[in-house]
Amino acid sequence: MGLLTDRATRTLEHEVTDTNNSDLGSWLSLYLQEHRIPKDGNWSDVSGENFLRTLLTRPVEEISGSFSDEEPLFAVASPVGGDPRGVAQRIMDYRHAIAKEWIEELRAVPEENKVLLSETLMGSLGASLNAADAEQKQQPQAAPDDTVDDAAGGSDD
């Protein structure tokens, strides 16, 4: 679960960076530096549960930003950029979507395993047959014998 939560968080971080939402991106990057999902420890930490709980219980923070470096008149303060509950909800939405994708991928594993085994076995069988053919071609073959052995008691009379 921690891997899933971490992947969802990284997806959100990438999205806000790509959409030039620098205020939210900066806030999220700082938050992720301070609140990592550990790989070792108790289950509630490792699973990402505490990470999400912390986000869900944090108060809304105002983030100041400006649409123009030249005009202080356009500087704004927006609680949307620093809404930890909203961020947690978006992470949980991504987590749900990623989990659904993984479930579909995991359902395909038995069939993929069969295909891999089949290809490997067919390849091995093909290699064995090719080796046998090559060995047979290397052995000298006797010329066909056109003579008939009449010593076996057969007569043409």
Keywords:
single chain, 157 residues, mainly alpha, two-stranded antiparallel ribbon, 6 helices, 2 strands, 62% helix, rod-shaped, Chaperonin_RbcX_sf
Can you summarize this structure?
The protein is mostly helical and 157 residues long.
Could you walk me through the main structural features you see in this protein, from its secondary elements to its overall organization?
12% of the residues are buried. This protein has helices spanning 2-18, 22-34, 43-46, 49-57, 84-107, 109-138, and strands at 61-66, 75-82. It has a domain at 2-110. The model has no long low-confidence stretch (mean pLDDT 78). It has a two-stranded antiparallel ribbon with strand order 1-2. α1 (2-18) packs antiparallel against α2 (22-34) and α4 packs antiparallel against α5 (84-107). The longest helix has 30 residues, at 109-138. It is rod-shaped. With 157 residues, the chain is mainly alpha-helical. InterPro entries: Chaperonin_RbcX_sf (IPR038052). Residues 128-157 are annotated as: Disordered.
What portion of residues is helical? 55-70%
- Overall shape: rod-shaped
* Helical/strand content category: mainly alpha
Return the string of H and E elements. Answer: HHHHEEHH
